[in-house]
Amino acid sequence: MVTSAMATGEVRLEESWRQPLAPLFGQPFMQDLKRFLLDERRRGKTILPKAANWFNAMDRTPLDRVKVVILGQDPYHGAGQAHGLSFSVPKGVAIPPSLRNIYKELQDDLAIPPARHGCLESWAGQGVLLLNSVLTVELGRPASHAGHGWERFTDEVIRLVAERATPAVFLLWGRYAQAKAAFVDGGRHLVLKAAHPSPLAAHSGFFGSRPFSQANAFLEARGHGAIDWRLPE
Which of 25, 189, 220, 225 would suit a FRET pair with 46, their CA atoms being 20 to 30 Å apart? Predict the structure, then answer.
């Protein structure tokens, strides 16, 4: 997995993240994760996303450019869906229900019409870290890679953002995300908690939470520049 794949170029990790995260790759939990993923491949299982996109959230949003963090749980497990950004799918792939609800809240909040695709790369390019807690999954088996070490790795990613001098916005949707980032200082950062945007939970507090306008107000008040939440076609 990580150390060997990074050495061969199969896996990328953007330099601003590579340096502070480098000590993790030699730790036993990451070696165990490497063995697990290699064993899964040997058994003929399909791992999503492709290896080059495991660190896509960090590749597209360098540490010093993070303005907003949106936490997901694990990648989409359908064929062609996962590309390393939480809640996002590549263009041409059907928009998942949770993302449709995110678009609905975005329209209600900022009057931005829903995009006709589900690719959130333009958000990532502006400083929105679209981070899943677990960075891989087996095709067709949600949460199949939970508990194998990714959570400890992404805890460190969140900690690096939380410990910067520059305040950021953390959008924590659902209990899982809220527990994952419970250590983030809400006195220095803006921590916005709401229900998960899934169809089962969105009506329990996600709709009407207005996260996008609140995030932009916080960023603009500190001179960091708002996020343009519109998605180009």
Answer: 25
* Inter-residue contact 131 to 158 (CB < 8 Å): yes
pLDDT tens readout for residues 110-123:
999 999 999 999 99
Cα-flanking dihedrals φ and ψ of residue 91, to 5°? -60, 140
Q: Is the pLDDT of residue 205 over 70?
A: yes
Residue 155 bears catalytic tag: no
- Two structure tokens written together for 17: 């993240």
Q: Is 69 exposed, middle or buried (0-12, 13-18, 19+ CB in 10 A)?
A: buried
Say which residues have a Cβ less than 8 Å from residue 191's Cβ, sequence separation at least 6.
Answer: 169, 170, 172, 181, 184
Cis peptide before 49 (omega within 30 of 0): yes
Residue range 78-111, pLDDT digits in tens: 999 999 999 999 999 999 999 999 999 999 999 9
In contact, 169 and 109? CB cutoff 8 Å: no
Catalytic residue among 32, 39, 64, 74: 74
CA distances for 219 relative to 119, 189, 194, 224, angstroms:
23, 10, 19, 5
- Total Cβ atoms within 10 A of residue 124: 25
Is the confidence at residue 5, as pLDDT, over 80?
no
The CA distance from 210 to 206, in Å, is 8
Report yes or no: 66 and 168 within 8 Å, Cβ to Cβ. yes
Task: Give the amino acid at 210.
Answer: R
